[in-house]
Amino acid sequence: MDVPMWGWLATIGAMVAILAVDLVIVDRPWNKSGPREFSLKEAAWWAVFYIGIAVLFGFGLWYVSGATVAGEYFAGYVTEKSLSVDNLFVFYLIMASFAVPRKYQHEVLLVGIVIALVMRGVFITVGAQAINAWSEVFYLFGAFLIYTAIKIVRDHVKDEEENEDFADSFAVRMVKRIWPVTDDYRGTRLTVVENGRRHVTPMLMVIVAIGVTDLVFAVDSIPAIFGLTQDPYIVFTANAWALLGLRQLYFLLAGLMDRLSLISWGLAAIMVFIGIKMILHALHENGVPVPEIGTGVSLTVIIGVMAVTIAASLMRSGSGARGNAGRDPRGARPE
Predict the structure, then answer these.
(1) What's the rounded mean pLDDT across residues 312-330?
(2) How crowded is the C-beta side of 43, counted as CA atoms within 13 Å?
């Protein structure tokens, strides 16, 4: 797509405006009593709203640029949304590790989403430049995605046996070496002064942990969507719409975290599929007579894998609900 600068600015401006409205309506900054807990009904309505906006945007692309462009967008959006759900599992464990009060969780998630948007914007720019300068980068991206799939499965099996302590990660330990940390939360403040010395609060520790997580997920997700489309505009919008509304989806899925135990396997399968697609594309570009996987096939496979994975997870959790009551899929106790 040949999107003019005003098109980029209008798209980004619309996203910022929607996020600002979300912030004002949901967070209610004028409320002097401070942050409030997020209700399930609010989460459901906002999740539907953001998904609806993303779908309407896709149909808009279809009207303006045709079915091929829209198909690439929807394939990218579904992939990134699926990866964002896996991201929510990690956010869930981070919240539990730091015992974040529920009324502060949506503000932590907002910061996490903003960090993710910035990081993915940087990676999209770098990735697009790399592809334009060196088409063989598809081999590297494809191999990386297959490696990522293996790592997802390995980490999933490991986390079922041993829960990772995000509160004791390397980044968190580095911050603690520089500043002392208060024993409890001080509202949403990141730092406070006590006894004449600057202290950081657990809220800052949570944001550090989520920021590092966002970096890891950006490294994983950007090669995945470049395997479906090389158009920077589609890559950016699919990522942005998948991330916007993520905090509402978090609260909506919080009660289902312990039931989507097989989602990592589905994501790993999608990563392998896209990795193979990228390698085939690279071989085709270098004159090797191999078949290429079309956008329609990609979209069908991605939606099909996620549908089967979710259905299998729900069936599995239903048959073993009594034995697994009170546990989340990666072995952590809910708060």
Answers:
(1) 60
(2) 16
- Domain ranges for the chain: 5-319
Structure confidence at residue 256 (pLDDT): 65
CA 65 to CA 100: how far, in whole Å?
A: 45
Q: Structure tokens of 270?
A: 């999608």
Give the sign of the dihedral formed by CA 298, CA 299, CA 304, CA 305. positive
d(CA 167, CA 84): 21
Cα–Cα dist 44/254, whole Å: 12
- Residue-averaged pLDDT of the chain: 77
Give the pair of three-digit tokens for residue 291. 């078949």
Nearest to 78 by CA among 309, 292, 306: 306
* Residue for token pair 């085939």: 280
Number of CB atoms found within 10 A of residue 267's CB? 25
Q: Would you place residue 332 in the very low, low, confident or very high pLDDT band (cuts 50, 70, 90)?
A: very low
Q: Provide the 10 A C-beta neighbour count for residue 292.
A: 11
Beta bridge partners of 197: 194
φ, ψ of residue 200 to 5 degrees: the values are -100, 155
Q: Please give the model's pTM, rounded to 2 decimal places.
A: 0.73
Per-residue pLDDT at 325: 46
Higher pLDDT, 330 or 276: 276
